[in-house]
Amino acid sequence: MTPARRVVTLPPSLVGPEAVRFARNAQQRGADVLEVRTDLHAPDAIDPRALAQVLPLLVSERGQPIPEPWLDACWRADFDVAHAQVLAAPVGKLLASHHAARSLSSDEALALWSRPLPEDALVKHVEPMEASAHVSVLLETQRRLSERYGAHRVTVLGMGALALPARAVLARGNVLDYVATGGAWAAAPGQRLLDDAVREWTRAPSGSRARLGILGTSIAHSRSPRIHLQPFDRIDLPEDAPVEAVVDAMLPHYAGFAITSPFKLRLARHVGATLEAINTLVRRGSRWEAFNTDTEGARTVLERLDSGGECLVLGDGGTTAALRGVASDVGRTLRVLRRADAQGTLRGDVVWTWPDRVAAPESLRFEGARVAVIAYGAPGRRIAQDIIRRGGTPLMLGAAWFVAQARRQRELWETAS
Predict the structure, then answer these.
(1) Interior CA angle at 105 toward 143 and 101, to 5°?
(2) How far apart are CA 260 and CA 264, in angstroms?
(3) What residues does each domain of the chain span?
(4) Over the stretch 141-179, which tens digit does the pLDDT of each residue have?
(5) Which of 28, 41, 35 is nearest to 60 (CA)?
(6) Which fold has domain 295-402?
(7) Per-residue pLDDT tens for 267-312?
(8) Residue 93: how many other CB atoms lie within 10 Å
(9) CA gap 360, 383 in Å, rounded
(10) CA dihedral of residues 146, 149, 150, 151 (deg, nearest 10)
(11) CATH 3.40.50.150 assigned to 5-208
């Protein structure tokens, strides 16, 4: 199986030499194509020939016509299939696209592609994903368009807050895979990260292994894809996303999921787990089996906070559930403080479980306290600085927790059926 060509879009803030530097960086990270859109850049804001010397250039008409210098330098030109100019694209350069305003049935989607196209044109069909279950319809649309035009010409994409896992599945049969480079700006909702797409094909080149992924909010920093079997997707969802529907719809396509904040308790209830919170789902035929390997991480953290006696825990979510599960095994008692209770000055051993996006009470202070930080990477460093500001001594135990629980996750996913 040949991987789809990875397409990154030039951010609107980058022009001139900065645009060329972006293209070089993207090329070094594994991008195959650079897209430039007329709604994001004025005709004279970029040097298309300089960009095309770095990566093949895809120029896309979005509201404003594509300038002639862009067309001259491009590898492909994206015109809407209903646009009068679509057949006037330079010979051999047409990418005919359609961006639907709503989710369509496959019959509706195929009806949009009745216009004759040059035999060398690529075909791109895009729909908003109003529900995760629509992935099955998009896969059928992809199959039928590939039968009509040839699999070497077709790309089908979903868009929206719930689209990322569907786009990862669709990429297996697409010619183009539109991905995000990371950071605050994204070209479209639902794009997976360039680094994850590259890792899939460099560490699992056959493309035959069932997918794995991590579900959470604000997880671009997650190290899970670096250590787990590939392909492994970071699926970043809003806190109020219908994550239950996402895991149900992806059951045929994913062998397992890592679950992180804020979905550990919700998904435990959804799959009928006997556990208060879960961090691992493993496919068992037509159902999910739930586990909480966070207990392995919790055990590691409490053993390193080895002064004995009571340990204060800030926050009462999925992480705290894991700590409760092993506290008696390691001879510790826990006192759990929710945000409303975490006021004044705390002493002794403390575990900080709040993610960095959750602001701690301003009155919270520490005196002679060792505070275990469960987060790692940039979020962990931000939490540590906050702890120091409040008078505590941070213990960076997030990586130890992560490795301990991930080792057990990997063992479980290898049993998926």
Answers:
(1) 110
(2) 6
(3) 5-208, 295-402
(4) 999 999 999 999 999 999 999 999 999 999 999 999 999
(5) 35
(6) Rossmann fold (3.40.50)
(7) 999 999 998 889 999 999 999 999 999 999 999 999 988 767 789 9
(8) 20
(9) 10
(10) -40
(11) no
